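User: Hey, my collaborator sent me this sequence without any context and asked if I could get a structure. I don't really work with proteins. Can you help?
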Amino acid sequence: MKNSLLLLFMSALLFASCIKDEPLNTECDIVSAWVEGVQYAENFYQSSQMRVENLSTTEKEIVFTVRSLLSLPTSLPVYFDITPGATIEPANGSPQDFTKGPVTYTVTSQDGEWHRQYTVMFKEASLPIYKYSFEHFETIVSYSNSYHEFYEVDQSGNRLNIWASGNIGAIMAKYDSKPEDQPTYSLEAGYQGRGVCLNTQDAGSLGQFFGKPIAAGNLFMGRFLLEHVLSNPLKSTEFGRLIDRVPVRVTGYYKYRPGAVFTDQKMHEVPGRTDEASIYAVFYRNKDEDGKDVYLYGDNVLSSPYIVRKAEVASLPPTDQWTRFEMFFEGGEADDQLLDSQGYNMTLVFSSSKGGASFEGAIGSELCIDEVEVSFENDDD
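Assistant: No problem. I've predicted the 3D structure and written it out in structure-token form, which is a compact way to encode the shape of the chain:
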């Protein structure tokens, strides 16, 4: 019995000695990192982008890809899976401001002898982009009036007539006017180079006679059909140009000043109402079920059943400084076969008065735009 107790005591001492002598972990690695919470999911195109897995032991940077840095929260927690026993500073899951740039995390090994630093950053997705800088325009002379017509130039130097405005209709009520007298004209001092100025104007006695008292400055992808301007003005704006990719975001710069007095269709003042600018985009099918061409007009540009996705800037606060705006396309998925067969159109619309199509707004409202970029889904996705 005494021998058994002695053996048990010796075994316990030996076991305790093994525990005491076990070396502390010297590793100090981040294995994975992630953002969690439904309130942050909208910042990512896909939920899989909320996690960075299987980090190599040689990694020094951890990069999360987001839709936009502009809308990224200034207090965002990131969580880490680190090697056993190690500690991390700043604390695991502590909110940080990544909008100001990368945040450096230091991982310390369990034995306290080893340290490793990681740079954690958020960046915008790298997507195919179409850029519109509005540097190209032509001065069109019509009788005693002149106005600006905007166009793009492709890589081969070919002119692309994708833009339209209501200028050609607005000059009907004018005489001996210059481009700067029209609702839409080229702005010499844009955000970079030239830009576009849209302004809401009095349509004169002719406009009053036909019940169309104001002319809002507008610029859009599509065509302006002069033959409908008096009889059916909502049909005078034909929206849409062929597009071979799926749009996801539009960004750009704007300045906005609302006019002093908001009026309705009969030029009656509406007390307490302030004019608003409008920027939106629509991606839609350009063929119906019978294969006939589909275009959108002023009466259905935001309501047509052929719309697949649309985007709209929620608010454009007045500002006399160039200010960045952005909007995201929301809606359904595009059909790859239709996309390959040029089955979709897109329009991008700017207006100095949101209710301009209904002849409501404030004379003197002015919206300036420049450096507009449309981002598209990656072809490899």
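In plain terms: The longest strand covers residues 247-257. You can pass these tokens on to your collaborator as they are.
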